[in-house]
Amino acid sequence: MKILFISAFFPYENVSHAGGKTVYYYLNSFAKDDEVTLLTFVTKQDFNKLDHTYPYRLVPAKYGYTVKDKVLRFIMSKATKYWPLQKYCGFYNTYDEFLLKKKLAELAREKYKPDIIILEWTQCVLTRELVHNYFPDSKIVASEHDLSVVGFQRKVEAAEKGFTAKKLEDLKRLELGALAQCDMTFFHSREDLKRAKNMMPQCKDKFSSIVPYYDDYSTVKWKPTTKNIVFFGALNRVENVKSALWFYENVFCKLKDTSWNLVLLGSHPDEKLVFLSQQDERVIVTGFVKDIRPWLQNCACMIAPLVMGAGIKVKVLEALSAGVPLLTNEIGMEGINAENEKEYFHCQTAEDYIRVLDAFFDSADKLTTMSIAEKKFVKSNFDKEISYERYRDSLLHIAGKK
């Protein structure tokens, strides 16, 4: 089977973002069994991180390599953002479309004919019609990391600058329209799968899901030797910064026991978080940590008090796989059907977090039982190898190879 991956972002080993890790995992899994080509957008900085023994054919759409290139992309990106007649609702800029067309034309001229084309991320899903024009005989599959209309709607409801009801309707029309035209869509979240089936019942037979990649920490033996509350993720991302600050102000500062520590674990910490650690010695900002397992093993618990975001949260799966008691809310558990008080503590309000933490050590047996249940839950519901086998089997059927 010939598979063409078209990815909005460059997947490489040790890529920092969760979506890139998922693409990297499935890309390399397919490359063991099939003839795989990757067409991806790549900067010079990212390209230098590539292990050049990769088992697939790479077709890089390069940008940011020259000053002229950087200036041109910047100008065209701004034009895309503010041009009222933009085709992709700001998700895809004119310069990237130009690069994509160039690479698709190169592949078409050499008579390359993939059986399956996988469009990674909404950015690429929106180009479905363009891709189909170059490869009309190929089956086109959408790989939806997040159902973007969901996150966009939350930003509209929060009245975030630049996010309007008109743009939401435009995105809904574009995204759902593209998914309807794809031969199959694989959502990375079962909650997004459920939403899509409700939004588009006529397409439900073409919708499925896969398990997103997560680092499996099942070898961690949780044994709390500290009173550390751990929050981890890329600490320069706005959703993580807002969530950490919310927790500090509304929960951490109001706990009865002042011997707790708040550990903010992740790369590129925002200056607001660094300043916080300078003002309060109980707040520890680690910066990049190569191996987080010691932190997970010795902490008291992990939190994911997310105030925004959509789609499945890989950090939550990783905490559950480690058997670390987890406190999170509806956004954190989106697409993860774990049971409150059995596999995690559901905390929707600041008062919920305070209540759980103030009584946290009252029942050691309950925490140990929860730790065991978490690991069993992840193993039973989020097996990546089984997910890949089902994913490939579906593609073989779509391509008429089985």
How would you sum up this structure, described in words?
The chain folds into two domains: 2-213 and 383-398, Glycogen Phosphorylase B (Rossmann fold, 3-Layer(aba) Sandwich); 228-381, 3-Layer(aba) Sandwich (Rossmann fold), CATH 3.40.50.2000. α9 (190-199) links the parallel β6 (184-187) and β7. The chain has helices at 18-33, 44-47, 67-82, 94-109, 121-125, 128-134, 148-157, 165-181, 190-199, 238-250, 271-279, 293-298, 314-322, 350-358, 364-381, 384-398; strands at 2-7, 35-42, 57-62, 116-120, 139-144, 184-187, 207-209, 228-232, 261-265, 283-287, 301-304, 326-328, 345-346. The termini are close together. Helix content is 45%, strand content 15%. It is built from 16 helices and 13 strands. The longest helix has 18 residues, at 364-381. α7 packs antiparallel against α8 (165-181) and α13 (314-322) crosses α15. The strands form two sheets. Strands 3-2-1-4-5-6-7 form a seven-stranded parallel β-sheet, with helices on both faces. Strands 10-9-8-11-12-13 form a six-stranded parallel β-sheet, sandwiched between helices. The chain is globular. It is α/β, with parallel strands linked by helices and 402 residues long.
Output the strand order for the largest sheet: 3-2-1-4-5-6-7
CATH class of the largest domain: Alpha Beta
CATH architecture field of the largest domain: 3-Layer(aba) Sandwich
The secondary-structure element order is EHEHEHHEHHEHHEHEEHEHEHEHEEHHH
Number of strands: 13
CATH fold field value of the largest domain: Rossmann fold
Q: What structural class results from the helix and strand content? A: alpha/beta
